[in-house]
Amino acid sequence: MQEMINIMKNRAIELMNDGTVARVIGWSRGEFVYDMIPTVFNSVEDVEKSFAYSDFCGSNLSKYLIEQGSKEGKTLVFLKPCDTYSFNQLLTEHRIDREKVYVVGIECQGKLNYELLKKAGVKRLVSADVEGDTVTVTDAKGTYTLPAVDVLAERCVNCKSRKHVVYDELIGQSGEVLDSHRFDMVAELEALSPTERFEFWQEQLSKCIRCNACRKVCPACTCEKCVFDNDASGIATKANSDSFEEKMYHIIRAFHVVGRCTDCGECSRVCPENIPLHLLNRKFIKDINELYGEYQAGEEAGSRNPLVSYTTDDCEPDVVYERGGNE
Amino acid sequence: MSVFKKIAIADLDKLFAKTSEKMSIYVPTDNKDGDAVYTEWKDGVKLSDAVNTLRSAKDFFFPQTENLAGFKLVGKTIEMYRTAEEKEDFVLFGVRACDVKSFAILDSVFLADPVDTFYAARREHGIVVALACNDANDTCFCKTFGIDPAEPGADVSAWKNADEMFFKANTDKGAAWLASVSDVLEDAENGEGVVADVKQSINEMMSTLPLSGLTTESFDGKNLLEAFNSPEWKDLSSTCLGCGTCTFYCPTCQCYDIREFDTGNGVKRFRCWDSCMYSDFTKMAAENPRHTQLERFRQRFMHKLVYYPMNNNGVYGCVGCGRCLAKCPISMNIVKVMKTVGKEKA
Amino acid sequence: MIDALIPTVGVVTDIRIDTPDVKTFRVVTPDGKKAFDHMPGQCAMLSIPGVGEAMFSITSSPTNTEYMEFSIKKCGCLTDWLHRMDVGQQILIRGPYGNGFPVETTFKGKDMLFIAGGIGLAPLRSVINYCRHYRENYGKIDIVYGARSSADLVDYNEIITEWVGDTDTNVHLTIDRPEDSWDGHVGFVPNFVKELGFTTDKIVILCGPPIMIKFTLAGLKEMGYVDTQVFTTMEMKMKCGIGKCGRCNIGSKYVCKDGPVFSFDQLSELPDEY
After folding, report:
1. A71, A305, B143, C20: least buried by Cβ within 10 Å?
2. Neighbouring C-beta atoms of residue C175, cutoff 10 Å
3. Strand partners, A51
4. Rounded CA gap, C157 and C164, in Å?
5. Domain boundary residue among C97, C124, C147?
6. Could you tell me if C147 and C216 lie in one domain?
7. Are C9 and C29 in contact (CB under 8 A)?
8. ipTM associated with this complex
């Protein structure tokens, strides 16, 4: 890991020094080893002083390019494979100017979820590194290994792709699109009866505290004025004042990112109540795959998602009956 | 007779059951995710061993939403309906010292003249049973603000060791509750000694915490403009998402919005939590004095560390519960701010 | 128990068109009384269910015991609604909020210089009429008032018929650009104040658009005024009106409770965030 950090840091400094980029978006260390803060570095001194990287760098930095990319000069951004899909999608939606970004793709073996480490009994964590199927942990108890599947973020256990779909240069290896099990949980929910499924979502969504972290972190949520903040929309809400609003909020949000959501999983990562929000988005992705053929948002910049590109082969609306809908 | 009462941990259900005969009792219990959440006790609800609850306890006195009044606008006339205030007593069990202190901070806002009667009614009817912390999280730093987790205060203080839980009433309300459940409690002649031992081990545990050295020295309220104008705010806030996580999980954040909802049969005016992190928080028809995330971010920390203490005899608006440290999506938090903005002044 | 967040019903008994975008509304309780007592400079929350609620300064003087008046500029959802309503409409009202002007302490016995621009006259009208009512308690009164055009001068009728010609009172009106029918002064308020060249022993109350305040204050300082002599009223977004909802603060001060009236020396100790 230390070698990886040095390479990243040195490249950032070189590219700043030779004038290629004016700023760098990466990470710096927070209060604890597992606190990695997305950080905008505006000088070589800042990079030297506080640039950091670790297997806790789960955050997807692509959305920051909307703001940082509008500034003078190029912005260097470090993107993990899944983050590159979001980047492409942002390019597709004209939220970022490709010419103003220098993408450094970084190899990724999956990112850790500290809450899972805590639940696995880790205390006073000193370090944790992902090495293939295991995680080497050093904490108050000493150094030991844990199975990666137990402590990696769910989106990493079910990683869809280790391939960087866009980059200017790579650090480490770019992998392949994976044959993941990411739709398994969606299939399980589909197999439930409507009542059981309703109960599942009601229990999950009733936990929502309406902090808006999911919306704020989502690279597909880039509206300048969100419908939920717009009093004129008639659905402007600020708090989960009743269950109706909770359900509306997440479902409207999921509908709004359909075909554009790359399944980066940031919504579930940031949810302080651990609501598996990504499952709503995955359900839509799975449906699109089944109804219109396989489509991965962000795989290719400029691609038109099936919901905005009509073909005569598209399924008819009555497909809902074939899928068990009521007439 | 000892001032301490006790019950075997294995028998806590009896205490909860006895209380629930007369009033609701809310107990931290583990949900399916393993997070402790306050739950109304009914048979089968077990007291969580977690260091603290996922959400703070402020919800009980300052709920996320509450109706203030109802109106009907018919032609030129307005009919108005008032919302009834809470009148039922309830017990809030197992509140930690940090959250107990947060009630005092909320009180200084809501009970200051003019009194917020909705809040006051809930405070009056709530009996808080505080539980000393036998364990702490890495993120705990209540000691920084002079809070003693071994002496949690509230209406009743409770301590536990491996087998038993000990209670001591601090207020008339607390004594009345203890008396109402005396059937299931025993006099604890050994209470003094056991509680002293528990306190000692808590103090030892606390001194080993990673944030035990954090101090408030750089934030004495005398340097308001210096702290406000610090160049550090720019970098600290540069990747803030502007979500409301820190404010909603914070036990002392009490900003609210007053909004209306058209039910189709009149208009309900309600109050709901708001967040100074939101871009519309100070937005007026024509302008917004906090127009970027820098100003909003700075407001939250200046309020906790400078403005609130200036208005409240030096008491800080943070209780060190650590929820924002655990929950911020970008791992930015008040500790980082204190160390960064405070450092340059030292 | 009285809850400060719960309004009472008021009735609009008179609507006066002041300028193309300012109307003055007279409000009483349904049984014809004044809703509550107040001090000059204090505010009230007015609302229409389903439309919105906002803070407005009470423009009538406390010495008026029959009703309250609000001069309101049309600039958003609620104010549009208020401008469309007719006499007899019920509205919701709560208050009074804020500190008001120190008319019984700092101002007493002093010469008063009121400087207003546009709708900025609204909060000053209350204190001007208060000083006129208790005339013996105050020295000489000067009123400098400017607007974009003569049609934009709020309360023009009252100014001409009551203020002009009052004992020991001078009214100085100005408009931004010349008009055929205007034989008064033409020019911006800050320059007009300098041209008038007041002695520096007065209390100044300054209210108007931020740019006017900025330049007038600079001019006053050139003339020899100090911050402690100059007062203004601040405007921030408000929801509760009682210093609890947390959004109208400038540093440690809540505009709804500690303000809206501040002297410039008080403001100089606060962060520049308004």
Report:
1. C20
2. 21
3. A28
4. 10
5. C97
6. yes
7. yes
8. 0.93
Same domain, C122 and C229: yes
Q: Are residues C55 and C157 part of one domain?
A: no
Those chains having 3 or more beta-carbon pairs within 8 angstroms of chain A are B
The residue type of C232 is: T
For B309, the closest chain C residue by CA position comes to C252
Interface partners of chain B (CB pairs < 8 Å, 3 or more) are A, C
Residue identified by tokens 């943070």 is B318
Q: Confirm or reject contact between B261 and chain A (CB < 8 A).
A: yes
pLDDT digits (tens, 9 = 90+) for A268-315: 999 999 999 999 999 999 999 999 999 999 999 999 999 999 888 888
- In this structure, are C120 and C21 located in the same domain? no
In angstroms, the CA C23 to CA C39 distance is 22
Tell me how many domains chain C contains.
2
Q: How confident is the model at residue A242 (pLDDT cuts 50, 70, 90)?
A: low
Q: How far apart are CA C22 and CA C258, in angstroms?
A: 27
Q: Which residues, listed in sequence order, are joined to residue A147 by a DSSP beta bridge?
A: A134
Indicate whether C119 and C93 sit together in one domain.
no
Chain B residues whose beta carbon lies within 8 Å of the beta carbon of residue A211: 243-245, 247-249, 275
Determine, for residues B245 and A30 on separate chains, whether the beta-carbon distance falls below 8 Å: no
Q: Is the pLDDT of residue C2 over 80?
A: no
Secondary structure, 3-state, C199-266: CCCCEEEEECCHHHHHHHHHHHHHHCCCHHHEEEECCCCCCCCCCCCCCCEECCEECCCCCCEEEHHH
C-alpha distance across the termini of chain C, in Å: 35
- Cβ contact B58:B119 at 8 Å: no
Question: Are C58 and C42 spatial neighbours (Cβ–Cβ below 8 Å)?
Answer: yes
The closest alpha carbon to C93, from C126, C53, C61, C122, belongs to C53
Indicate if C57 and C25 belong to the same structural domain.
yes
Closest chain B residue by Cα to residue C3: B117
Tell whether B147 is within 8 A of chain A (Cβ).
Answer: no
**Among A39, A210, A213, whose Cβ lies nearest the Cβ of B239?**
A39
* C107 occurs within a structural domain: no
**Structure confidence by residue, pLDDT tens digits, A214-227:** 999 999 999 988 98
Look at residues A217, A8, A219 and name the one whose alpha carbon lies nearest to residue A107.
A8
Which residues in B lie closer than 8 A to residue C245 (C-beta atoms)?
Answer: 255-258, 274
* Both structure tokens of B118: 């909705």
Burial of C38 (0-12, 13-18, 19+ CB in 10 A): buried
Domain boundary among C42, C68, C97: C97
Q: Is the dihedral of CA C209, C215, C218, C224 positive or negative?
A: negative
- Asked if pLDDT for residue B255 goes beyond 50, the answer is yes
Same-domain check for residues C130 and C224: yes
Domains in chain B: boundaries:
5-207, 224-343
Sheet hosting strand C68-73, strand order edge to edge: C52-57, C43-48, C90-97, C8-19, C22-28, C68-73
**Which residues of chain B lie closer than 8 angstroms to A123, CB-CB?**
138
* CB A167, CB A174: distance < 8 Å: yes
Task: Give the up-direction half-sphere exposure of residue B264: CA atoms within 13 A in the CB hemisphere.
Answer: 0
pLDDT class of A319 with cuts at 50, 70, 90:
confident
B152, B96 in Cβ contact below 8 A?
yes
CATH classification at residue C138: 3.40.50.80
Q: Is C123 helix (H, G, I), strand (E, B) or coil?
A: helix
Provide the domain limits for residue C20: 8-97
Q: Show Cβ contacts of residue C196 under 8 Å, excluding neighbours closer than 6 positions.
A: C142, C144, C172
Evaluate whether B308 touches B317 at the Cβ level (below 8 Å): yes
Nearest chain C alpha carbon to B113? C242
Contact B239 A37 (CB under 8 A): yes
Q: How far apart are the first and last CA of chain A?
A: 57
- pTM of the model as a whole: 0.94
Residue C24: strand pairing partners: C16, C71
Cβ distance C252 to B310 less than 8 Å, yes or no, reads yes
List the structure tokens of C229.
Answer: 């002599």
